[in-house]
Design goal:
The chain is mainly alpha-helical and 159 residues long. The protein has one domain (3-121). It has four helices and two strands, in the order ααααββ. A two-stranded antiparallel ribbon has the order 1-2. Strand 1 and strand 2 (146-149) form a beta hairpin. Helix 1 (3-33) runs parallel beside helix 4 (90-134). It is rod-shaped.
């Protein structure tokens, strides 16, 4: 394994993280619009990108382990540790990748949390709407007392 291969893998992983961020934002737009028809498709796209990221992380781990053995920096080193043992120009490049990963994962976490909140609000609204269909709603009579459910009403639409 070479430093060039590691660099290419890290760039690919960054691209996948950016794609994941885009797909999560796309999912958020679907949720916010209330057009849940496309929610399953948006969620499936997020899952596909997550699977690609997992594969890419495995490739990176294998490459990092091989490079770590060649430079003698221990097993499963962090990018920061590996940067300390890398030849020029790779130390700065590895640090830049690390910073980009931190920023992207923070942004992804924030967006995913917002999506979970939107889903929770939508689920609550649906649950309340279904409860309203099941339960009859009483009204108040002229004396201010609760009366039974009101039957069907005819509304004159000409008004």
């Amino acid at each position: 394994m070479s430093w060039e291969e590691l660099s290419a893998l890290l760039w690919k992983e960054r691209e996948l993280l950016e794609l994941l961020l885009f797909k999560i934002e796309e999912e958020q737009l679907v949720l916010a619009s209330g057009r849940t028809r496309w929610l399953a498709h948006a969620t499936r796209e997020v899952e596909v990108v997550l699977a690609e990221i997992r594969e890419q992380e495995l490739r990176r781990a294998i490459t990092v382990e091989a490079l770590a053995q060649t430079v003698g920096c221990g097993s499963q080193p962090s990018l920061t540790t590996l940067a300390g043992h890398a030849p020029e120009p790779y130390p700065e490049l590895l640090r830049a990748h690390r910073q980009a990963f931190l920023a992207l994962t923070a942004e992804i976490s924030t967006m995913a949390e917002a999506n979970r909140d939107l889903l929770a609000v939508g689920a609550k609204a649906t649950r309340e709407a279904l409860l309203g269909l099941e339960q009859s709603v009483g009204t108040y009579g002229p004396q201010g007392r609760m009366t039974g459910p009101v039957g069907p009403r005819v509304v004159d639409q000409a008004l």
